[in-house]
Design a protein that fits this description.
alpha+beta; PmbA/TldD fold; 2 domains; 6-stranded mixed β-sheet; 8 helices; 21 strands; 20% helix
Length: 434
C-alpha cells in the first residue's frame, strides 16, 4: 500500500516538476509517563506522513501532508514553493544505489508489546526508586517503531524499519534543608533496557551527592562520565558539519589533513553500526549509510555532508542528510559518532581531580570558538585515585578543541547517548570555579 502511494505521488509530481522525491514515514509509539510516584499518563499513537520535494528549473520546493486525499494538493504546494525559491544548481536527489545490510536495528518484541507492558515497566522504576528511599520526580518508559520509504525520479528506492526503546528517571532525596537530585537514562534498539538498573543508578548518584562540600577555584584534572562527555562533545559536532564549514562557521574549515587533536584519538561517523541508535540503510535523502573517518590518529580527514552541501564542495555526500520527521527538510546531521582513544587514564590514576557525572548548559557553548562554561552536575572530588566526597556546586570552563588535544579515555566502556558513542573522558585541565 505504501509503495503504491509513493509511486502514485511520484508519477503525479513528475507531471509538474523536473525531478521529485517522495518520503513516507509511519510511526507507532507506546509511552508511559512518570510524574512523582505514579504512572501519570500512558498512550499508544500511530501516525503516517508524506513529504514531497521537487526541483523545477534548479529551484527546490517542499510540502507535506498526513492525508492521503490531499496528495495532488500537496504536490502543487511543493511546486509553488519551488517557483518562489531561489535558483541553486546544487539541488539534487540521491542516485539509484545499493544499500548496506544493517543489523540489529529492529527488534520483533515490539510487535507483541502492549501498553500495559510499558505501564508495568514504569511502575517497576517507581518501586525501585521508593525502595532506595528516594523520591521519583519525573520519567517514563517509551517504545517506538519507525518505518520509512524514500523513492525519487533518479531511481533511488530505500526502505528502513527500526525500533527504539528507552527509559528515563529523575529523583531527589532530602539533603539538609534542600534536596539532592540526579537522573539516569538508557536507550536501545532492543527491549533489553533494565528499568530497575536505571532507577538504582539514579538513586545511587543522588544519595552519594548529599552533604556536598565546596571546592576551591583553580585548574584541575576532570573525569567526564559518559553523560558529561557527550554533552560537551555536542559543540564539536558543529565544527565537522559541512554546512558550517562552507559558511565559515567552523574552526576546522582550513584544517583538513592537519593535526587537530591528540595522536591517540580517532573519531568517525558510522550509520551502519550494528544496533546503533541512528543506524539505517540510508539517510533521509536515500544516500546509502557509510562509515566516514573524521579524525584519524589526530589528523582531520573529513567533514560530514548531505547532497546539497556536498555538491557545493564538488564532492560526494557522506550519507548525513538527516530528517527529524516527514514534515522536515533533510539537513546535515550525525548518525553514530564514535570517539575512540588509544590511551587511557582511569580514576585510580588520578591523584587530584573531579569526577563529573553530567553537565548543564552545554548548549550555550560557542560553536565556532569551542569555548564553554557549564555547571557540573553530581560532581565528586577525587584524591589518590578514589572518590572522597561530593561537591556542592561548581562551574567548569574550557575549550572543546583544546580538550581533544590532550584528553584520554578513562575506561574502555563506551555508551551511546544520542548520536555519541563515547567512553568516559579524562581531561588534563579545566578551570573549576567553586
Amino acid at each position: 500500500m505504501i509503495n503504491d502511494l509513493a509511486n502514485q505521488t511520484l508519477d503525479y509530481a513528475l507531471k509538474n516538476a523536473d525531478q521529485a522525491e517522495i518520503y513516507i514515514e509511519t510511526t507507532e509509539n507506546i509511552d508511559a509517563t512518570i510524574q512523582n510516584d505514579q504512572v501519570d499518563f500512558a498512550k499508544e499513537a500511530h501516525s503516517m506522513g508524506l513529504g514531497i520535494r521537487v526541483i523545477c528549473d534548479n529551484r527546490m520546493g517542499f510540502a507535506y501532508t498526513t492525508q492521503n486525499k490531499k496528495l495532488e494538493e500537496t504536490v502543487k504546494k511543493a511546486v509553488s514553493n519551488a517557483h518562489a525559491n531561489l535558483v541553486d544548481e546544487n539541488f539534487a536527489f540521491a542516485s539509484k544505489s545499493d544499500y548496506p545490510v544493517v543489523k540489529d536495528i529492529y527488534h520483533n518484541k515490539f510487535d507483541t508489546l502492549e501498553l500495559e507492558d510499558t505501564i508495568s515497566l514504569g511502575k517497576s522504576v517507581i518501586g525501585t526508586v521508593l525502595d532506595n528511599k528516594c523520591q521519583p520526580t519525573s520519567g517514563g518508559v517509551s517504545a517506538g517503531c519507525y518505518k520509512t520509504l524514500i523513492i525519487n525520479s533518479e531511481g533511488a528506492s530505500c526502505e528502513d524499519a527500526s525500533t527504539y526503546f528507552s527509559s528515563f528517571i529523575a529523583v531527589n532525596v532530602p539533603d539538609g534543608e534542600g534536596v539532592s537530585t540526579a537522573s539516569e537514562s538508557d536507550s536501545s534498539r532492543k527491549l533489553d533496557i533494565d528499568p530497575e538498573k536505571i532507577a538504582n543508578k539514579a538513586c545511587e548518584i543522588a544519595l552519594n551527592s548529599r552533604g556536598g562540600k565546596s571546592v576551591e577555584t583553580g585548574d584541575m584534572k576532570i573525569l567526564l562520565d559518559h553523560h558529561a562527555a557527550s554533552g560537551i562533545l555536542s559543540t564539536f559536532s558543529q565544527a565537522i558539519n559541512g554546512d558550517n564549514v562552507q559558511r565559515g562557521r567552523s574552526i576546522y574549515a582550513d584544517k583538513l589533513d592537519k593535526e587537530v587533536s591528540s595522536p591517540s584519538l580517532n573519531i568517525y561517523d558510522d550509520g551502519t553500526i550494528k544496533g546503533g541508535l541512528n543506524s539505517s540503510r540510508g539517510d533521509g535523502e536515500g544516500t546509502p549509510s557509510q562509515k566516514t573517518v573524521i579524525i584519524e590518529n589526530g589528523i582531520l580527514r573529513n567533514f560530514i555532508y548531505d547532497i546539497h552541501t556536498a555538491n557545493k564542495g564538488k564532492i560526494q555526500s557522506t550519507g548525513n542528510g538527516m530528517r527529524a520527521s516527514f514534515n522536515d527538510m533533510p539537513a546535515v546531521g550525525l548518525s553514530n559518532l564514535v570517539v575512540d582513544f588509544k590511551e587511557q587514564e582511569g580514576l585510580s590514576e588520578i591523584k587530584d581531580g573531579i569526577l563529573v557525572t553530567d553537565v548543564l548548559g552545554a548548549h550555550t557553548a560557542n560553536p565556532i570558538s569551542g569555548d564553554f562554561s557549564v555547571e557540573a552536575m553530581n560532581a565528586f572530588k577525587i584524591e589518590k585515585g578514589e572518590v572522597v566526597y561530593p561537591i556542592k556546586k561548581a562551574m567548569l570552563s574550557g575549550n572543546i578543541f583544546s580538550i581533544l588535544k590532550d584528553a584520554t579515555a578513562a575506561s574502555q566502556k563506551t555508551r551511546q547517548l544520542g548520536p555519541f558513542i563515547v567512553p568516559p573522558i579524562t581531561v588534563s585541565s579545566l578551570r573549576v570555579v567553586g
